[in-house]
């Protein structure tokens, strides 16, 4: 009995200890489960107090955080990016430049299972502030920047210095600016998102060859002194004052390699001085070609004196910096512009053309215009390569200039105007140029044919509307001799024969009958009419010793001479 009791006492405590361990183990398992559950729960959400670019995404799941960031950050990331290059502003569109947010990368690692109690505690109580991850497609970004480069570029421009009238004007040089593409790619990549100010992008600068400092020095030390007042030129007997405007008109500036040089045109200075003082004018006399005894004659040239142009520029420049602004000059022997030898080389020595046409002597007023026009042409010289314009030679065609009101043809009807009859002078000069081989610049035949003129080879004239002009295409000058006599108008050209000219006219074709027309205008002139209209072709050939020109054919159609009845058509 005693031994059994002792044995039971020993087993009792042993069973109690086992129950305690079972309870404790279960508690641990439950606690561990709860801890793991809490860790799993916390791992499924972003830690509390986490911000992305200031936006609180704490305690949100990744999907919830992504949705919120899409809503609040994506519009910000899509805004145009203001950029500045060398003072020029432009915008870069993120979509075109391959710039965007990478929200997956941004949220990476913010959630996940973690049993570390320190980490779990920080998830509950920590502070995490991050910026979004950015995605940059460098190929697109580079292409976008290359597209913007011309818009923000500034061309290197050299400065200028010139006179506007008598005022010196400096235009400052401009430094060239070119976008540094490689540097710009790096700058945009690093700073494009949420840039509050325009993003300054790097650029390559190209300085002008001549600086503003150099130009301003030339302005102050050379240009301004030149025109600060008049400059007096004197030789002790004569004197002339050159105005600032005259001085400025003779000045030019050479700007190169960071240096500015002002030059003065001695010839222009001399001309200005001659205009201001008779004593400085050239007394040289040009050779003259005149008609004497029915043929050309050369009156020899003569040397003379005028203000010496040599070194005049330096004298004036020095005077511009002196207090008294006076330059002492001298006279020098001068030769005429046209010497006797040069006049002889012009070859005005023989008659190369003589053309005449009859005129209606009964129309005395018209005849007066023929005399007036011929007088203005007589002795005119047309130099090699020069174009002769009849309108310029005769004009202005006014009563004050010696012309009279006489008959003309207007819109197919006879009328009157000042200078009526000068179309015959036009026909004379057209034929003279035609037969000499000169180039026809402009002419227009009459609307109806007058028998006193070669058909298809005649010209009219109407000041301000119709001119007759030809160009002297030879190496020789030509002198015009024009007169009225023997019932005809005459034109002779004096020169040296250069072209052999051939002329051939077709027969009249496309004949049209006259008709009866009515003219209700005031001053109407009734006409009997009766002459047919027609077309005609005129061909000219020209051959010189060393060349020939292509044959040229000109065609013209004349209206018939209609019967004109004054008044309205019944």
Automatic annotation (TrEMBL):
What PANTHER family has UniProt attached to this entry? EXPORTED PROTEIN, EXPORTED PROTEIN-RELATED
Statement: the UniProt record of this protein carries the keyword Membrane:
yes
Keywords, sorted A to Z: Membrane, Transmembrane, Transmembrane helix
The residues covered by the YoaR-like putative peptidoglycan binding domain are 92-186, 259-324
Q: Which residues form a coiled coil?
A: none
Transmembrane portions of the chain: 21-42
Q: What is this protein called?
A: YoaR-like putative peptidoglycan binding domain-containing protein
Stored Pfam families? PG_binding_4, VanW
Q: Which InterPro entries match?
A: Glycopeptide_resist_protein, Vancomycin_resist_VanW, YoaR-like_PG-bd
């Amino acid at each position: 009995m005693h031994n059994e009791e002792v044995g039971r006492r020993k087993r009792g405590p042993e069973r109690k200890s086992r129950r305690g361990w079972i309870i404790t183990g279960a508690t641990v398992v439950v606690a561990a489960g709860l801890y793991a559950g809490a860790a799993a729960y916390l791992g499924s959400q972003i830690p509390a107090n986490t911000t992305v670019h200031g936006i609180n995404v704490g305690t949100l799941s990744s999907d919830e955080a992504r949705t919120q960031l899409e809503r609040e950050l994506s519009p910000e990331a899509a805004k145009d990016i203001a950029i500045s290059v060398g003072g020029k502003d432009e915008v870069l569109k993120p979509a075109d430049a391959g710039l965007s947010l990478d929200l997956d990368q941004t949220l990476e690692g913010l959630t996940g299972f973690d049993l570390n109690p320190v980490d779990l505690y920080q998830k509950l109580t920590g502070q995490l502030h991050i910026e979004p991850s950015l995605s940059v497609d460098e190929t697109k970004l580079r292409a976008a920047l290359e597209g913007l480069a011309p818009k923000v570029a500034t061309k290197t421009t050299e400065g200028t210095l010139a006179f506007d009238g008598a005022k010196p004007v400096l235009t400052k040089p401009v430094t060239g600016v070119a976008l540094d593409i490689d540097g710009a790619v790096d700058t945009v990549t690093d700073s494009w998102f949420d840039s509050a100010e325009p993003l300054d992008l790097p650029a390559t600068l190209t300085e002008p060859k001549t600086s503003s400092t150099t130009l301003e020095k030339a302005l102050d030390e050379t240009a301004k002194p030149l025109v600060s007042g008049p400059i007096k030129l004197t030789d002790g007997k004569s004197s002339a004052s050159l105005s600032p405007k005259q001085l400025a008109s003779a000045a030019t500036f050479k700007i190169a390699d960071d240096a500015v040089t002002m030059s003065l045109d001695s010839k222009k200075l001399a001309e200005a001085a001659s205009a201001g003082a008779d004593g400085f004018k050239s007394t040289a006399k040009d050779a003259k070609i005149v008609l004497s005894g029915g043929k050309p004659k050369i009156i020899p040239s003569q040397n003379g004196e005028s203000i010496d142009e040599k070194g005049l520029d330096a004298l004036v420049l020095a005077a511009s910096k002196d207090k008294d602004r006076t330059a002492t000059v001298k006279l020098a022997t001068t030769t005429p512009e046209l010497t006797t030898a040069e006049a002889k080389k012009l070859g005005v020595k023989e008659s190369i053309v003589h053309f005449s046409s009859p005129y209606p002597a009964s129309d005395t007023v018209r005849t007066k215009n023929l005399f007036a026009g011929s007088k203005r042409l007589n002795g005119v010289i047309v130099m090699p390569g020069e174009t002769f314009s009849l309108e310029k030679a005769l004009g202005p065609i006014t009563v004050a200039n010696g012309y009279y009101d006489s008959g003309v043809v207007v819109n197919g009807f006879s009328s009157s105007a000042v200078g009526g009859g000068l179309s015959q002078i036009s026909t004379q000069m057209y034929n003279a140029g035609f037969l000499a081989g000169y180039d026809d610049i402009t002419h227009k035949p009459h609307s109806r044919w007058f028998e006193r003129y070669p058909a298809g080879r005649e010209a009219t004239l109407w000041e301000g509307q119709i001119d007759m002009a030809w160009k002297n295409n030879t190496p020789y000058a030509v002198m015009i001799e024009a007169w009225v006599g023997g019932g005809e108008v005459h034109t002779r050209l004096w020169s040296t024969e250069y072209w052999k000219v051939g002329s051939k006219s077709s027969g009249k074709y496309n004949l049209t009958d006259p008709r009866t027309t009515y003219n209700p205008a005031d001053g109407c002139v009734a006409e009997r009419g009766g002459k047919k209209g027609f077309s005609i072709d005129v061909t000219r050939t020209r051959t010189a010793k060393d060349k020939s020109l292509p044959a040229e054919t000109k065609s013209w159609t004349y209206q018939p001479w209609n019967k004109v009845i004054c008044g309205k058509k019944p």
